[in-house]
Amino acid sequence: MVHSNFLGMKLSDEEQAALILWAKEDGIEKKSVMMRRIFRMALRHFAPVKIFPPQILDALNLSREVES
Question: Angle, to 10 degrees, between the axis of helix 33-46 and the axis of helix 13-25?
Fold first, then answer.
């Protein structure tokens, strides 16, 4: 099991998957502005943006290219 450090928290692969599922559950567009910002930061940290559906990336104003 690999852990990623994000916002001072260590996230396992399962926790990262839960974060993705949370975003998809009822649409990222319906989340609060703060939660969208946190999710956007998580996406930038985890970097494999290519795995996310276009609607999530569009809602967060992220490109499909990995950000540096």
Answer: 140
Can you give the pLDDT at residue 1?
43
> 33 pLDDT band (50/70/90 cuts)?
confident
Q: Please give the torsion angle defined by the CA atoms of residues 7, 61, 49 and 68, in that order, rounded to the nearest 10 degrees.
A: -70
**Cα 6 to Cα 19: distance, rounded to the nearest angstrom:** 12
Q: Provide mean pLDDT across the span 38-50.
A: 66
CB 38 within 8 A of CB 7: yes
- Which residues are registered as beta bridge partners of 11? 4
Burial of 23 (0-12, 13-18, 19+ CB in 10 A): buried
3-state SS class at 8: coil
